[in-house]
């Protein structure tokens, strides 16, 4: 189980990929409490933050934050390439600066002292901010660390349905930012970009969102832009094999270098939804594409959202209730030699094309100990016969090695850069 701590549990919220780790309450006043001007009481006392603002995820831990953290309502993904002249030493300095910025912001503190901070997140608490760092294939050659490059970063196989834009794919460094407040998330994005200095150049950047905590009467699994309940059958930290499936072990086997202990691999796909086509389908046809009911995410074979799907059940006419090409049937671990991943996506919407079609879909992010035992076999299967394929288009792709979390006084990636 992740050892990140959220300081106050939200009573209402977007049910995330996993449960919350609960810990000591009350440490999250941070920047908001320090900037008492607008949030302070009339007697100069400091007004307590709402539950949402005060939720704090710990930066330090065995694993980086933003993997098992419940998915937040605002997300930014950004990739950088190292600048010419940036070697191992400069890359180490960058990761040290980034880690310090992430640690401060996640604790609700200003960056570089109140004088230097942009004030964009002033008055807000950490709002479950997480900042997660990863290394792409190109990082290792540019820093002379080829021998440390994990085999898992080898390019993904090409899939027949790929329509990938190279300029918006891959990258030497990847940063995932999530928060339950849009200003807090943007503030973190700018701080990360500023700290990059001359060491790296922006390659691509994407913005995403999920439902805001408190929008539903009780915590519920979020929905995607096709209207489906999305995230139901994710591996859970309470599962016996959760750590083995999602994280590189403490003593990595041959395939993984020692510096990846406690780390994970993120596969990132920008998947456009062809919503004009999708929305023409009847609800019944949409449900057959997925194999689950749209209203509540329950399997078509009955029960509630969490009821096990009955893959063998037939109608009176002898047809399978869950069609053979239904997405939720063919993506299951038991249909893919046990392949499993933790899906933690954001929706995106980047306006409309000249034809008026929405440029919208899913920033699909999945986490696994090995993409060859997670994303790759499942995507191969989906590529061959997923009913959903006609309604989606994969437009960008990346794989990133996300090292384990930093201990106090350490920075992310230190074992690689100083090992
Ligand atoms: C290669 C992996 C996957 C891609 C790419 C993918 C894209 C994608 N999925 C949805 C919507 C849903 N997916 C659901 C379940 C589901 N999807 C994957 C994998 C990929 N999806 C898995 C492993 C599973 C779980 C299967 C299981 O064990 O039951 C569901 C059902 C609800 C749920 O369990 O979350 C929906 C809905 C979209 C819209 C999409 C691309 C845009
Ligand atoms: Fe899916």
TrEMBL record:
Keywords of the record: Heme, Iron, Lyase, Metal-binding, Oxidoreductase, Peroxidase, Signal
CC terms in the record's Gene Ontology section: cell envelope; cytosol
Co-factor binding comment: Binds 1 heme b (iron(II)-protoporphyrin IX) group non-covalently per subunit.
GO biological process: one example: iron import into cell
Cofactor: heme b
Region listing for Disordered, in residue ranges: 33-52
EC category: oxidoreductase
Principal location listed in the UniProt entry: other
Annotated ranges, domain Dyp-type peroxidase N-terminal: 64-210
Gene Ontology molecular-function annotations: ferrochelatase activity; heme binding; metal ion binding; peroxidase activity
Catalytic activity: heme b + 2 H(+) = protoporphyrin IX + Fe(2+)
Domain Dyp-type peroxidase C-terminal, residue spans: 221-405
EC number of the protein: 1.11.1.-
Family, per entry: Belongs to the DyP-type peroxidase family.
Name of this chain's protein: Deferrochelatase
Natural source organism: Streptomyces longispororuber
Species classification: Bacteria, Bacillati, Actinomycetota, Actinomycetes, Kitasatosporales
């Amino acid at each position: 189980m992740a050892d990140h701590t959220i300081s106050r549990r939200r009573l209402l919220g977007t049910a995330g990929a996993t449960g919350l780790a609960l810990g000591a309450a009350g440490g999250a006043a941070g920047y908001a409490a320090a900037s008492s001007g607008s949030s302070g009481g009339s007697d100069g006392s400091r007004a307590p933050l709402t539950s949402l603002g005060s939720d704090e995820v710990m930066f330090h831990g065995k694993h980086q934050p933003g993997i098992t953290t419940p998915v937040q309502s605002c997300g930014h993904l950004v990739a950088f390439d190292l600048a010419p002249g940036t070697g191992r030493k400069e890359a180490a300095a960058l990761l040290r600066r980034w880690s310090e910025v992430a640690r401060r912001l996640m604790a609700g503190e200003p960056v570089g002292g109140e004088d230097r901070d942009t004030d964009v997140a002033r008055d807000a608490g950490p709002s479950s901010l997480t900042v997660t760092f990863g290394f792409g294939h190109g990082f290792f050659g540019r820093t002379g660390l080829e021998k440390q490059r994990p085999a898992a970063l080898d390019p993904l196989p090409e899939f027949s349905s790929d329509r990938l834009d190279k300029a918006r794919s891959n990258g030497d460094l990847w940063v995932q930012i999530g928060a339950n407040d849009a200003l807090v998330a943007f503030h973190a994005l700018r701080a990360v970009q500023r700290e990059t200095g001359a060491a790296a150049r922006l390659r691509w950047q994407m913005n995403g969102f999920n439902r805001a905590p408190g929008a539903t009467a009780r915590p519920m699994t979020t929905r995607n832009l096709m209207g489906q309940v999305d995230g139901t059958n994710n591996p859970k930290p309470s599962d016996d094999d959760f750590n083995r499936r999602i994280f590189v072990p403490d003593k990595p086997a041959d395939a993984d270098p020692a510096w990846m202990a406690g780390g994970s691999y993120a596969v990132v796909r920008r998947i456009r939804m062809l919503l004009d086509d999708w929305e023409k389908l009847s609800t019944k046809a949409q449900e057959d594409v997925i194999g689950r009911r749209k209203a509540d995410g329950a399997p078509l074979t009955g029960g509630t959202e969490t009821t096990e799907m009955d893959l063998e059940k037939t109608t009176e006419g002898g047809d399978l209730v869950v069609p053979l090409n239904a997405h939720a049937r063919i993506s299951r671990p038991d249909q893919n030699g046990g392949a499993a991943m933790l899906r933690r996506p954001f929706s995106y919407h980047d306006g409309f094309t000249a034809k008026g079609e929405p440029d919208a879909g899913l920033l699909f992010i999945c986490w696994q100990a090995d993409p060859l035992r997670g994303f790759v076999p499942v995507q191969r299967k989906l590529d061959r016969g997923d009913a959903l394929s006609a309604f989606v288009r994969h437009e960008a792709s990346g794989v990133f090695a996300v090292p384990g979390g930093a201990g106090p006084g350490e920075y992310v990636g230190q074992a690689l850069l100083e090992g």
